[in-house]
Amino acid sequence: MLRFIRLGNTIFDDLFSVMAVIDLTFLRYCNWATNGARPLYENGRGPWNIFDPEEIERLRHTLEEVTLPELRRVNTIDDFVAYRSNEPPPHNTFSFDFKLMAHIAIAKGDLDEAVCIVDAAIAKGWVDHLPAYYELLKKRDQGALITFLRKQQASSIATLGLTGYWKPTPFPIEL
């Protein structure tokens, strides 16, 4: 599980964006994790002005009193699913991401559910090509699926530059 606050610049010199990010490490990233990112806006208006002391104080308050406690409550895959399932629009597309939902089911050890998710996506025409893990999943090859998730996790951690800090923990399927 990754939980962090991401600060980013905008096209304007005095404005920056702030995002609360909660994501799963076993999803393979090519760049910064954004799957679980939720923008924090200044009163719903957009990026934060770094030259406005009152606005910076509101951001500090939002981060310390609202966002960080919210991030700290998400510790398990089930917490992650609950958190993402309750996102406000337009960020509430979580349950439509069949790859994410299948990976979660695999990590939790619910291989039958993962097969159902992928097969339903195939039937709906959402799949251009079969996922790399599909044959392993159809065979219910738990060991190979764990290896698949671990490789994706290692790649994500390396991409994010966290290799020196990361300590792997068992997936629920391994417990």
From TrEMBL:
Domain of life the protein comes from: Bacteria
Official protein name in the record: Uncharacterized protein
Record organism: Phyllobacterium trifolii
